[in-house]
Every structure is written in structure tokens, then in C-alpha cells.
Amino acid sequence: MELEPGQVVEGRYRLLARRGAGAYGVVFRARDLETRDEVAIKFLKRGAADPALLQRFEREAIAMARLRGTAAVYVHALGRLADGSAYIVMELLHGRELERYLKEAERAGGRLKAQKTLELLRPIARTLEAAHGQGIIHRDLKPGNIFVVDPEHGGGVRLMDFGLVKVMGADSLTADGMVAGTPSYIAPEAWRGVKHLDHRIDVYSLGVIVFRCLSGRTPSPTQSLLGLCEWAQKGERPSLHQLRRSLPESIDAWVHKALAAQPEDRFQTVGALWSSLESILVDVPASPF
User: Fold this and answer.
1) Which parts of the chain register pLDDT below 50?
2) Which CATH number fits the domain that encloses residue 31?
3) What is the C-alpha to C-alpha distance for residues 38 and 40, in angstroms, rounded to an integer?
4) Which end of the chain, N or C, is surrounded by fewer C-beta atoms within 10 Å?
5) Which one is catalytic: 32, 50, 140, 198?
6) Model-level pTM?
7) Is position 140 annotated as part of the catalytic site?
């Protein structure tokens, strides 16, 4: 089935406009003809008939549905078309990805204020805590998968794209030797090809995102794949205090622990990482006396 604006899917969702596409999926803005609400529908592309891809797609929907009540994108339904291809109906978001949000600031020569960083990422940290508590690992945390909602549409942030999600105890959907994720945010143990990855890869990736928000750059001095792989495992972690003097010197100890090459040397939970960051960056009210 070729998908085009104007079509009605399963007698309920009228496709309004194409919003974007990836390697295996395409997203449309649509109207729910029952509720009259606008929604986003993500379809698995025609030809992506690999059973593992279909399983991953359905696992993404189930993971997001299990995180209802958090900052994860809200899932309305999971369905199949007549030709067997799958789709996910999700809330329609208005705003921009954190990646674009940061680039706009960086182009203007600025960086996020510490309190703005905490405000934006706090709901993401809480969502990851909830996910990890259910055995769900995101595996592709990056600014491109965090969405900043426009204030006129409710504000806040959403955690998106659970396409690489791993559910602990479920069969692996990643081939041996495959490194899943976005290079600058991939944890060292993933580069090393460790087979049984756990939630600490998300801890590492969130640490990189915080570093990027506060410094205007990722911590690695190179963007080449080989260089990123080597730096993640053996490279010296940069001083965030040197890059931004307004931050306390104690932020450097936080960076070294958040981005530790060995998982056992890292913060062991997102909650521990986040509470430590809050204690360092929290605004101390000025004394009125």
C-alpha cells in the first residue's frame, strides 16, 4: 500500500502530510476521524519485511506504552495494515528536537544555562529511571531523540525514538558485532562489542548530552569513527570547568564519573547521576541579609 496524504488508514486515520522518514519508517501527520484530534503515525516502510525489524518496531511501541505517564512520547495504538505492515499511532508534537534547539543557541554563540539544562533534562532522567525499572534500555539517547515542545502546545520535553530499545530478558535484535546508537553518544562497552549491555549505556549517553548542553560540544575531540571508538575507551575526559568557568570545579569529577570508560566506575543509575548533577548545579538562594 502506497501511503499518500488524503488516504484513510483502517477507516479511522486520514493522512494529512508527511512529516519525515528514516531508514525503515515514515511518519505522517494525520487526523483521528473518531476523536477529531491530530496525531502522528509512524509506518514501517514497505519492503522492510524482515521479521526482526517488525519485532523491533512493535517492541518500540510496547516500550513507549509501558512508560505512559512519563516524558516518553504517548502511544495511542499499534496496528497492522491489510498488507501486514505495522504502524504506531502517537501524540503529535509541536516544537523542535533538542539537537536543533542547541544548534540555534550555538550558532548565536551561546550555551544553555545550567538551570535551563536541568529543566529540560530532568523529565528525561525521570523517564529513564522508570524505563530502567521496567528493564527497558533506550540505547540511542542523543539530542535528536529529545523533543522540546513549544510553550503554546503545553511546553516540556518528550523522549522519542525507542527504535533501538532493548528489553532485559527478551531476545536480542542486534546482530553480533553490530554497534547500535549514534557515535558521539555510544558508551565505551558498546564500542568494545560487549554482548550483554545494560542500563549503564544510557547513563553514559545522558552524561554526554549534559556535557553538550553545558559546553556547546561533545566531549570527544574528534568525530571520526575510529577516533570516537578509541577516545571513548581510553581518551582523557575534558574539563567542563575549563570550557565554562562559571560552572563549579566539582563538575569535572561528575564528568569523569558519568563518562567513565568502565561501567562499574560510572554512576550506577540515572538517579544517582542526576541527583549528583542537581547538587552541583542547584542555585543557592542569595541571602536577604
Assistant:
1) 168-178, 284, 286-287
2) 3.30.200.20
3) 7
4) C
5) 140
6) 0.88
7) yes
